[in-house]
Amino acid sequence: MSSDWVLRDQKRVWHGFTQMSTFAELAPIMVERAEGPYLIDVNGKRYLDAISSLWVTTIGHNNGEINDAIATQLSKVAHSTLLGNSNTAIVELSEALAEIVPVNDPHFLYASDGAAAVEQALKIAFQYWTNLGNFQKTKFLTLSHAYHGDTVGSLSLGDGGFGTDIFNPLRFNSIKTPGYNVDNWLYRAILELEANYNVLAALVIEPLVQGASGMYIAMPEQVKELVKVAQSLGVTVIADEVATGFGRTGKMFASDLCGINPDIMCLGKGLTGGYLPMSVTVVSNRIYDAFLGPDRSEKTFYHGHSFSGNPLCAAAAKKHLEILQRDSIIEKVKERQHHLSVELDKKIKCLPLVKDIRQAGLMVGIEIKSSDDPGHRGRVVCMNAVQNGVLLRPLGDVIVLMPHLNFSKANLTKTVDVLERSINQLL
Ligand SMILES: Cc1ncc(COP(=O)(O)O)c(C=O)c1O
Description:
single chain; Aspartate Aminotransferase, domain 1; binds pyridoxal-5'-phosphate; 17 strands; 2 domains; seven-stranded mixed β-sheet; 14 helices
């Protein structure tokens, strides 16, 4: 039955980051429904979702309370525009977010995907300076190994790789400095800041963890120092917390862990608990105030998306926040993170094919030694894991573990056991 669906899919659906000519051969899971930590396919087979459906799901699938919040909102209004108008759900969500984001007197501009939040951030950072009459600050300082999304603007801030180099002619130039995998990255970044601060619209970072490049991790004090230097030189700091936000690193935001107050922050993925597509660009009052002026003046931010501030997404996000806080979910991440780390130390670190394990909270990258065909082993390990009932997806030869924040210890252990078996199957 699954193969039927796969063939129908292959005939009409185009999957991102997927070579469609081999899609069916690679035994994709055809999901029909989900329950808590499990995705369930059309044959009723259950898979532990150990990548949180590409890092979005925070407290499990099919959560009754979030379902009810969406249904209640649905009975009122599904969508109404935020351009020049508003809805009560988005006001309530913004008030709730304002209590927790580490941005001074925050204001919220909503979109649907992480890349769009980053795109908004870079345009805001640019226009902020022109609104102040400074037309020199047009460049961005970004880190090697960064990933900020796939729209042309966010792609320009990110590094290459993963087949995206083909778009290089479309990218605008940003000033690059080494990423967290290079020992003296902080020193080099500070040199770039000092050399270029007068032309920099912003410094763009993934605080603490460069996720998509393979989970490279900085020390919180290093991130704090970088942000301190940038802000003292008058460089706006954009913290892209699309991946690290909402508890992933053991705090609500990685910025909290690093002790920073970014000027602009991008959130997405876990914002709605991973239920509905919503992202947001958060700006401090200093940035926001620079956009105030007469009606229809050029100080206005002429940017917006049709589904910005969708009330269904807002209702899901607000309920999700309530659950995180009420059930102290993030406070419990530490325990789970420790359990996972002990299991990985015991069962994975010693395997001859494992090169490195990098972990921050419940974000883990396990680097497999590459063969002559880089990326092949990562792919095979994850296919083995799927056959063994755990959904994993690699970044090249780095296997990502990104369990829901409330995975039970038994499910964390099962994930590691399956990973061990799946790596050993390579031999
Ligand atoms: C740090 C970071 N920024 C932006 C994005 C892009 O988010 P989206 O896939 O929702 O566009 C991602 C996605 O993985 C990410 O990890």
